[in-house]
Design brief:
2 domains, 4 helices
Length: 195
């Protein structure tokens, strides 16, 4: 594989929709866990507070309100403190997936246009290294098949020239040879148009 320094990505948001959904999903999970945590703490402490509330009802009610507010604020701060690093971690991880996928899309576009001299290098720690290797094998095979096809065209053209040089061909045979030549030319044009 070529030197990976040539393929350093400058854009972190390569596939914005994919990466955005990934980040939102993780943040929603953090919020959900924060709310669950607040609910569980509130539920666990509420029993103790109610049992002690008979002696000093007013103080417990104020404590209850403060505790609920403290849990809510604490979880909100925890969500923010966990959410910001999570965004960066998720962005980094999704970048390691979205970057190679973007590269594969570009390679597929080039191959579809007939350019088989593309390479599929990925950076050292990118995901999908096996897929990159498979792309390289596929492109080598397509190149080999194209070369074999070109050799076959040349061979058929030589045989047709030999047939045309035969003196005793009837008109039907001459027409057939011409049709084959035209078909070969059309096939070559199709191959050449993709280069």
């Amino acid at each position: 594989m070529p030197d990976n320094k040539h393929f350093k990505r400058r854009t972190v948001f390569i596939k914005k929709a994919f990466q955005g959904r990934f980040i939102i999903l993780v943040l929603l999970m953090i919020v959900l866990f924060g709310l669950c945590s607040a609910g569980i703490i509130y539920w666990l402490i509420s029993g103790d507070l109610q049992s002690q509330s008979q002696a000093a009802h007013i103080n417990i009610t104020n404590t209850w309100e403060r505790l609920g507010l403290s849990i809510l604020i604490g979880n909100f701060v925890a969500i923010i403190l966990a959410g910001i690093p999570t965004i960066f971690v998720v962005l980094y991880i999704s970048h390691k997936i979205a970057g190679p996928l973007y590269r594969f899309e570009k390679i597929c576009e080039q191959v579809a246009k007939g350019s088989f001299d593309v390479i599929t290098p990925l950076r050292k720690h990118d995901q999908l290294q096996d897929l990159a290797q498979s792309f390289s094998v596929m492109i080598r095979e397509l190149t080999t098949q194209r070369q074999k096809r070109q050799q076959s065209y040349t061979h058929i053209e030589q045989q047709l020239k030999t047939m045309k040089s035969i003196q005793n061909l009837n008109q039907e045979q001459i027409d057939t040879v011409s049709e084959i030549e035209n078909s070969i030319q059309q096939l070559k044009k199709m191959d050449d148009s993709k280069v």
